[in-house]
Each structure stands twice: as structure tokens, then as C-alpha cells.
Amino acid sequence: MSELNTSLAGVHAAIGALLATADGVGSAWKVPRAPGTVSGIACPPPPLAAARRGIDMRILGWTLTAALTGCVSVNAKPVHHYVFFGQDREKIAKASSFLETNALEGAQVAYSWRQLEPEKDAYDFRIIREDLAFLTSRGKKLFIQLQDVTFSESRINVPLYLQRDAVYNGGADKQYEFKEGDEEHAVVAGWAARRWDPAVQQRFHKLLSALGREFDGRIEGINFAETAVDFGETGRLFPKGFSFEIYRDAIITNMQALKRAFPKSVAMQYGNFMPGEWRPTNDKGYLSAVYQAAKESKVGVGGPDLLPFRPGQLKSSYPLIREAAGIVPIGIAVQDGNFEDINPTTGKRVEISELVKFATEYLNVDYVFWGTQEPYYSEDVIPFLRRVKMATLSRGALP
Q1: pLDDT classification of 114: cutoffs 50, 70, 90
Q2: Among 70, 274, 297, 349, which has the highest number of CB atoms less than 10 A from its own CB?
Q3: Per-domain residue ranges for the chain?
Q4: Does residue 225 surpass a pLDDT of 60?
Q5: Which residues contact 54 (CB under 8 A, 6 or more apart)?
Q6: What's the confidence (pLDDT) of residue 392?
Q7: d(CA 376, CA 352)
Q8: CA geometry: angle at 305 spanning 326 and 226, to 5°?
Q9: Would the pLDDT of 148 be above 50?
Q10: Average pLDDT value for residue range 142-160
């Protein structure tokens, strides 16, 4: 019991640190979870200070369980663990740790639109077929990420015919990064497909239909890349035909087309941020509209980063992801940099167990896509998952 009290003292210190953060992550959290008991352990009531700050006690409940065990009542369901290989598909066959770890159900591989449609209406799915055949032979599954954006000025992921035919307005547009309010000195940060352009959409939807005819029901799922793009706020950097509202509607239209093409496999949209708003302080309803449409259309949702201690994520997409859990499939990716995030309470690098607990106990995910950033993948992720005796992790059954 003394160990329990010691842990509680440490957790309350962590809560105090969160409360002391001026307008940090707290103001976005709302509904308190009633105290209770699980497995004979009494869960402490919500601190009064937290309630006054409007902090969601579900998050604080997660903080408690990170130090104790079992104070958050959850319904056990299997969580499917995949490795995100990105576009490095050639690594799969050589990835012995991946192939030999039973808890890893499959690979998430990114394929660009440019790879899959090298010429107009001439689809080339050979690399998908090869990856699917190999993974199936090793008892693994394939989850496709369809990549239409890049984060490099020198790389464009849409087919050449879109770039060359004027009817498609270049097929893709530059996106930017800049200091707040200084669009005049913006720097090119990559290229985004013209998702909102009706002519480009028509071609994209044809690709989805072709993919669905061959792979629906054969692959575990397919997801779109993140909703976030950055063309500034003033209109100075806006591409032709772009507006925040048009972009919102295009995201919804495209993910509905994905679901029509893949009624059997999981269809998922990564939704992290939307241009033209910053939740919750400048919430225009763009991202929430995407999530609402996803729930209505039975499209899975999630995001490209698992960052439990970042106010940006905690206030923007994470509450929407949690609300969608149990209605549609939920996925979260642990990508480069996520393993290096610092827990502000401990001052130490986030642990794999903390990432898993947050993903499963707060976000209530169905899928975790683990990045291969070294040394964390080999030294932390694989050993952690190998301690699991079953092929999947279930909530409340962490090693």
C-alpha cells in the first residue's frame, strides 16, 4: 500500500504540473470522469482545482494509470499493431524483427499516386501486388497509405500528365512554412495534390475505384495522408480555386469516394489540422465537420503523430478522435520524432508504455502504426511488443 501511496503522490505532482501550465493543455478538456474502483483499487476523486480549470478528468485518469494500473475502466478490444515502412517497401523482406514479432500484424506502406498511375488511365499496381503476396506468405497483412503530398520542394507525388495538362492546373501546388504572420518570407515546404480541384478529383476518384476493384477485401485497409496543408491565411499564397471551405468540402468528398471504393477493407482519413483554423481558440468547424462526415460515412479516422504531451494535438484532433472511437476504426501513427518527445512531468523521453497507454486508454485506437526510427524501433518498440504473448495487445493487458 505504501508503494501505491508513493505512486499517487507522484501522479498528483504530475497533475499539479499540468494545472500550473498557463492555458496549456487544460482548457480543451471538459467532462470529468466519475471516481470509482477497478480491480479493488480505489480511484481518487478529481482534484477540485482541475475541475475548476475545466480539465477533462479522462486525461487525468490516463495520467494516473500511467503510474498505477487499472484506475480507468475500459472495454477490452484488440489493438492491431503495424509497422509503418513509408515508401521504403524494399526493407520489408529484410526486416527480420518485424517478420518474427507476432504482435506485429502487418505493414503500412505508402504508395504515391505518381507510382500507381504513371500514365493517364494506365495503372501499375505491381508493387502493391508484390508486397501483398510477400506479406501474405509470411502471415502478415498490408495497410496502404495513399500518398498525394510531399514535404520536399524537389518531390511531387502526382502523375506527370496532371502536371503537364493545363486542365489540371498543374495537378499539385506548393505548400509553405513561415514564421507567424510573415507570409512574405515563406519557404516552400513541399507539394500537395490539388485535392479541391474538380478535374484532379475526378482522376483521383478513378484511381480509387481501380484500386478498390483489385484490392478491396484483400488488404487490411487504406488511408489518406493528413488533412494539414499550409497555404497561409491571407490569400497571398492560396493556389488557384482554393478556399478553406472548398478544401473542407473536398476532403469530405474524397474520403467518401474512398469508402465507396473500399466497402470491405478499412477506409481511413488522417485528420490532424485544417487550414484556416486553430482549435480550439480559432475553431471554424472545419476539422470537426470532417470528423462528423467520417462518422456518418463510416470512414475511419486518426492521425500521423502520437504526441500525448503536445497541446496542439491535445486540443485539435485528439478529442475528435476519441469521440469517434467505437463508431469508426481509429488509427494513430508513431512517426519520426514521436519517440523523442519529452514527458514534461518526468523530464525524460516518452516511454513506449506511455505511448501505448495513451493510444489505447484515451484515444481508444484500433490500429497503431509504428515508425522505424532508430534506435527506438529496435531497442524499444520490438522488445516491448515481444513481451506480449498474444498476437495483439488488448486494453488492460499491457506487459
Answers
A1: very high
A2: 274
A3: 2-67, 78-394
A4: yes
A5: 26, 27, 29, 30
A6: 44
A7: 9
A8: 80
A9: yes
A10: 97
